[in-house]
Amino acid sequence: MTNPKVRDTVFCKYMSTEDHLLAVLNAIKGTYHNDSSSITINTLSGSFYSNIKNDISFMLDTLIMMLIEHQTTINPNMPIRMLEYVAELFRRYMEPEKRKIYGSELIKLPAPEFYVFYDGEDTSFEHQTLRLSDAFMAPSDKLELIVNVYNLADGMNETLKERCRPLKEYSIFSNHYKLLRKQRLPIDEAVSATIRYCIDNNVMKDYLLHNESEVIDMFGFEWDEKEERQALIEASEARGEARGQNREKINSARTLLTKGAVTLQALKLSGYYSQEELAAISK
To answer: DSSP H helical segments within 17-129, as ranges?
Structure first.
């Protein structure tokens, strides 16, 4: 069993508290809201009517709706995914007054904002912007959705991290873990050492003290994407090599049979060929 989204899970669980999300909002927007009760978490986790799920979404009162995704690989299709998420969030937001959508009164909506926190190996950028219009086959300014992507690598977006302690703490946790894995430490040793390092340095301390075994279990199912691709390539090459050897084996026996050097009965008695191979040889 593998889980390629381990760090996604840790990020979402650690960040998804009202206090932490308020800190993220203040850091991004340069505001100073201090009442975490004004935060309403509305993350999509699927329902009877829809199986749409996102990482994190929340509202500040009914003024702003912020959607956040955590990614370890850049996905240029995030704007269309975010469009799907916000459409579902708006549908649920309007549910109590859904009939008014056909009326003459304007329905007020929280203003949506879209963010990705990137946590992969690419350090060629600090911030980038993804636009829905980049996917249009013809130029159009009739519909737009903008996603801001922030890189959490060491040395990247340090001002943002300083303004948001939970985001800084998560980046320390993740970057320390990635460093140990680059040093070829096994997963279990790397995650245990990272947890000890963070607790000793008061990083995500309360969360890790209360959830240490869960975090270790989650990382136990980690599977590096590059390792997975390499394993698939090697398995495919092995199958191809085996098929090549099998074809050569069958062709050699078929040649001997055609020349009359052996009989099919002799091949059967040899025990060297499977029933499938004997069927192929006799064709």
So the answer is: 18-29, 78-94
pLDDT of residue 3: 44
Is there a contact between 69 and 116 (Cβ–Cβ < 8 Å)?
A: yes
CB 184 within 8 A of CB 129: no
Other Cβ atoms less than 10 A from the Cβ of 6: the count is 21
Closest CA to 40 of 116, 93, 94: 93
How many Å apart are CA 20 and CA 251, to the nearest integer?
67
The reported pLDDT for the residue numbered 241 is 63
Return the higher-pLDDT residue of 212 and 84: 84
- Hey, what amino acid is at 40? T
Integer Cα distance of 78 and 95 in angstroms: 26
Phi (first) and psi of residue 209, to 5 degrees: -65, -35
Under DSSP, is residue 122 helix (H, G, I), strand (E, B) or coil? coil
Name the H helices within the chain: 6-15, 18-29, 78-94, 158-163, 165-182, 187-200, 205-220, 225-258, 264-270, 275-281
Q: Is 190 helix (H, G, I), strand (E, B) or coil?
A: helix
Cβ count within 10 A of residue 25: 22
Q: Do the Cβ atoms of 27 and 160 come closer than 8 Å?
A: yes
pLDDT in tens, 257-275: 776 667 777 777 666 778 8
N- to C-terminal Cα separation, the chain: 42
Residue 234 Cα distances to 83, 227, 241, angstroms: 38, 10, 10
pLDDT at 49: 66
| 132 contacts 80 by C-beta, under 8 angstroms | yes
d(CA 224, CA 215) in angstroms, rounded, equals 17
The residue written with tokens 């390539």 in the block is: 233
Share of the chain above pLDDT 70, in %: 85
